[in-house]
């Protein structure tokens, strides 16, 4: 009888695993927004619609996807010219002096991306939408303040930007062996993270102030490659620098690598599995445009599965700035009581000012990772 009960439990567990796998595959196939609408339809509801553009928008030109090239920093446009003409990725010269790309640390780079006009209009559009009273949701599980741009009519624009601007950069920095540079300006790239075949994006704005979302706990992103662009003028805020630690499964994943201060229109790009967070904002308000990108072909590959071998993952040594109160089992033990649940700037400074830069920007514990995966949930992210 006991053996029969065990067999039934094993069968039920196997069915649950198959169900979770099928739902995960469906989500990958449909994309996050369509998957949510699918679940709503299963419950007999109607998909959420937002009637914003063109009736209520502030800058109609943002919603015309054919304007995509208008918003690029001229230095970036110049570097992409030959690739647009020939389709040859080798023509994307990221080492060109005119681009002024900065190699900040292995696998972390910054470059001029969008015009100041575009940044201003995006932020004005976000605030206009927030005043409209139309439905909105937090941009992710860790930021309460901000807006998902894909859901207000800007998906076509960012589809174009992914295809015509971000994809060639991702291929050169995080693509397969045929496309990827081995090093750039003295810093190594960190291997293939799907950059050659990006096909999906979750694009949103996050906002920080002394009243709401004062900082961002250490984490990794639920994406393959993250593009993070400053939307605020540098003089309008103090503090709130991005802090980067190691790659999620490396021995030094909780060791400080660099501190990055956002600059208007400048993009910092990194693998989604680079541990990072944002220290407390001290004055003013800061906003960033975040573009999480994914390659579903890469995620179905054996190479991707090997990268996510959970048996390799260990907590390891930690700088205090790299500890996560949301994700680290040993946070309570390692963080002094007077500094818990905050991200003061001095922790980043104490971790080593030599790696700090003003370049002109989690591992989840093993149990949490498996729960998120089984439930089809997206892990914590920026």
TrEMBL record:
InterPro entries recorded: Oxoglu/Fe-dep_dioxygenase_dom (IPR005123), Pro_4_hyd_alph (IPR006620)
TM ranges: none
Transcription recorded as keyword: no
Name under which the protein is recorded: 2-oxoglutarate and iron-dependent oxygenase domain-containing protein 2
Top-level taxon of the source organism: Eukaryota
UniProt-annotated stretches for the region Disordered: 344-382
Cofactor(s) demanded: L-ascorbate
Biased composition (Low complexity): 348-361
Keyword terms: Dioxygenase, Iron, Metal-binding, Oxidoreductase, Vitamin C
Keyword Iron annotated: yes
A Pfam family of this chain: OGFOD2-like
Domain spans labelled Fe2OG dioxygenase: 199-295
SMART domains in UniProt: P4Hc
Organism name: Durusdinium trenchii
């Amino acid at each position: 009888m006991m053996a029969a009960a065990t067999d039934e439990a094993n069968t039920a567990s196997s069915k649950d695993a198959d169900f979770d796998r099928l739902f995960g595959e469906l989500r990958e196939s449909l994309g996050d927004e369509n998957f949510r609408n699918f679940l709503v339809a299963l419950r007999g509801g109607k998909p959420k619609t937002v009637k914003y553009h063109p009736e209520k928008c502030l800058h109609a030109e943002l919603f015309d996807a054919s304007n995509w090239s208008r918003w690029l920093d001229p230095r970036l446009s110049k570097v992409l010219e030959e690739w647009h003409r020939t389709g040859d990725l080798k023509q994307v010269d990221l080492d060109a002096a005119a681009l002024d790309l900065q190699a900040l640390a292995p696998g972390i780079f910054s470059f001029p991306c969008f015009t100041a006009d575009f940044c201003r209009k995006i932020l004005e559009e976000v605030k206009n939408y927030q005043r409209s009273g139309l439905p909105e949701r937090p941009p992710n599980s860790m930021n309460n303040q901000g807006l998902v741009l894909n859901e207000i009519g800007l998906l076509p624009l960012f589809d174009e930007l992914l295809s015509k601007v971000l994809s060639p950069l991702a291929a050169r920095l995080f693509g397969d062996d045929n496309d990827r540079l081995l090093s750039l300006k003295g810093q190594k790239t960190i291997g293939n993270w799907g950059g050659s075949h990006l096909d999906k994006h979750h694009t949103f704005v996050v906002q920080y102030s002394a009243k709401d979302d004062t900082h961002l706990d250490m984490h990794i992103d639920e994406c393959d490659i993250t593009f993070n662009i400053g939307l605020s003028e540098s003089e309008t805020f103090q503090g709130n620098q991005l802090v980067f630690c190691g790659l999620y499964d490396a021995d030094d994943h909780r060791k400080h690598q660099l501190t990055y201060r956002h600059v208007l229109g400048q993009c910092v790009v990194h693998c989604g599995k680079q541990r990072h967070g944002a220290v407390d904002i001290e004055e003013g308000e800061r906003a960033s445009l975040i573009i999480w990108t994914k390659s579903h072909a890469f995620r179905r590959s054996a190479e991707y599965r090997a990268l996510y071998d959970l048996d390799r993952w260990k907590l390891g040594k930690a700088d205090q700035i790299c500890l996560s109160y949301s994700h680290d089992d040993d946070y309570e033990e390692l963080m002094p009581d007077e500094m818990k649940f905050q991200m003061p700037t001095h922790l980043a400074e104490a971790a080593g000012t030599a790696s700090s830069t003003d370049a002109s920007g989690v591992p989840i514990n093993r149990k949490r990772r498996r729960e998120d995966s089984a439930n089809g949930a997206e892990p914590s992210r920026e």
